[in-house]
Amino acid sequence: MKVEIWSDVMCPFCYIGKRRFEEALEQFEYKDQVEIEWKSFQLNPDMKTDPNISINQYLADAKGWTLDYAQQMHNHVTQMAAEVGLAYDFDRAVVANSFKAHRFSHFAKKQGLGDKAEEALFNGYFTQGLNIDDNETLIKLGTAIGLDAAAVQQVLESDTYADAVKHDIAEAQHLGIRGVPFFVMNSKYGVSGAQAVLVFQETIEKSFAEWQQENQKPTLTIIEGESCSPDGDCG
Fold first, then answer.
1. Mean pLDDT by 10-residue block, N- to C-terminus, for the chain (235 residues)?
2. Domains of the chain
3. CA–CA separation, 12 vs 50, rounded Å?
């Protein structure tokens, strides 16, 4: 059964949702029959990369908030992240456009490393304070998960996978997805947001049961009669 996950590396709830979904899946009896595919979604496509401004200041300016309020919001999210074992550090977060990171993720997915790429990007942005719009940074993240450095560099220095990113975004719009994370299970059930582990568990089980029934091989009741076998024995 396929689970498609739309997310943006700069979305704090996407990383939290990833952890809660993983916890639910780990407890699922048939987890080895679940295929996960990450999809691109950009929360702020017009964001300009600027390592010289804090994410708190950026949000305060963009949203019309006070700096204190932006910090309070991030403190709240940091506490949520800690509950699932994640150490967010918004003081180190780099204001960066995520489009290049999405292209990097698509390349990794093509090599069978999509989930590892998402984990590396999330950790790099929220914990390590890395610039996820920087080629050298992405090359290092890529080699750390098993990608070829030269191949990653070639992708980043071109527009390769740009159409794939745009396709994911267009598909999200077609499905009516307005925010991330968004989990689509068996192309039938959508889970929006970083839901509780129990919500993920129930939806995984329901989706899988239906998927299993839909893909069950038909059984035949056979009435024997005269016939010929593949070796030519007729009788």
1. 98 98 98 98 96 95 95 97 98 97 98 98 98 98 98 98 98 96 97 98 98 79 73 69
2. 2-214 (3.40.30.10)
3. 19
- Cβ contacts of 134 within 8 Å, gap of 6 or more: 96
Dihedral over Cα of 92, 98, 103, 109: its sign: positive
Rounded CA-CA distance 17/136 in Å is 28
| DSSP 8-state assignment for residue 128 | S
Say what the pLDDT of residue 217 is. Answer: 67
pLDDT score for 98:
98
Q: Give bridge partners of residue 29 from the DSSP assignment.
A: none
CA distances in angstroms from 76 to 59, 72, 73, 98, 170, listed in the order given:
15, 6, 5, 23, 31
Q: Cα separation of 116 and 105, whole Å?
A: 9
β-pairing, 94-95 with 35-40?
A: unpaired
Q: What is the distance between the alpha carbons of residues 172 and 129, in angstroms, rounded to a whole number?
A: 28
CB 165 within 8 A of CB 103: yes
Provide the pLDDT for residue 84. Answer: 98
Nearest Cα residue to 188 out of 216, 165, 166, 212: 212
DSSP 1-18: -EEEEEE-TT-HHHHHHH
C-alpha torsion angle, residues 84, 90, 95, 96 (rounded to 10) = -20
**Do residues 88 and 75 touch, judged by C-beta distance below 8 A?**
no
